[in-house]
Amino acid sequence: MSSSEKRLPPGTTESNARLHKWLQRGLFVCLTALALEGTFTFPGLMVWYGFPDLSLVEMCSELSKVRYSDDSRECIFPHPLFAPSEAAGQKTSQDKWGVQPKPQYKRIGFRELVKIRDERLARQAAAKQAQASERR
Amino acid sequence: MSTASFELDVPSAYDDHQSASREAQRKADRWMLPGAILMTTAVLGPIGFPLFLKGMAEQRKALLQGLAVRPMICTLLGYLVIMDSGLNSIGWSLDLIAHHSLISRTLVTAWGNMFDSGYFWHYNELWIGGATAPGEKGWEIALVPTVFCMRLAAAIGFLQMKRWGHQWLIVTCWFGVIYWVGYVANMTVFADLRYAHVVFPVWGWWLYDIFYITPFLAIPYLHTVNREIFSD
Lengths: 136, 232
Hints:
The complex is a heterodimer of chains A (136) and B (232). In chain A, 53% of the residues lie in helices and 3% in strands. Chain A contains four helices and two strands; from the N terminus they run H-H-H-E-E-H. Chain A has helices spanning 3-6, 17-48, 56-67, 112-135; strands spanning 95-96, 102-103. Chain A has a two-stranded antiparallel ribbon with strand order 1-2. The N and C termini of chain A lie far apart (101 Å). Chain B has helices at residues 3-40, 45-64, 72-96, 102-115, 136-159, 163-189, 191-194, 202-209, 214-224. In chain B, helix 6 (163-189) runs antiparallel to helix 9.
């Protein structure tokens, strides 16, 4: 047995030592990356989609308004246990149907949900004001 | 040293070494196992990761002391398979069973909007709820209760250096190759839907998911390792 073979971990022969060394490095990179992804995915998503300006329920409502192209959609939380799926039978979503469906909603940029919500609320307030002044 | 004392001392030294090795391995696993389990929950990863690193340091210390503990590559492989299976299971179980919880409706769909529209488009419209991407529910039902459960069990056996753990890790890692190829083919065929208007399209999905390639790293090792290190 050569001296270099003596230093090899159990189960690794000299002919596979290089392969095992690189596999070990790859495994460590994957493990670290999965740990970091697991840690930062949900907080990162929350920041991108508007937290803390939007609560989780508001974020849920805004996402479903975009998804179903319907400003009247609200997330009911908690969803009743034996109720049908929340979007079952909806008719508002915009898709280009063909051999493959293509969604028509727009890409949501960094914290754009907050802007979309603010603009909608401003629009609704202005419409209400206009209605009130018409009545006068 | 007389012959009599030689016969008495050698087994004792061997037994001492064995019990010190077993204790060192147990000590390292006592840190690594809770660390890995916490990391599989995703959000508790910041607590789990340092615990896991502490366990790895204990394992390295034992190796440097010449104790007969598990090789480092087996440790990394076993725990990575636990994490891979755990993270996949938690994400897909949320979508399959808890699709109307707030976390699914908000953060799973947000993830879908960012990387894979299959988890955003018409979400919670099917009677079964959750993702509506063609084929996705089939993958979830096929993989969570079968492949990922088997992979978890195999990884535990593998970490115990059992022969069945090694054998079942080979079987389930080849399952892993099948689901990688099948899943990527499915996503590619329905790319118009899955990557339409997402924040980070194809490259983003690959960057996020490439670290789940555990089977491709495990298979070359499992087929080239000297199997005599695993016992019945």
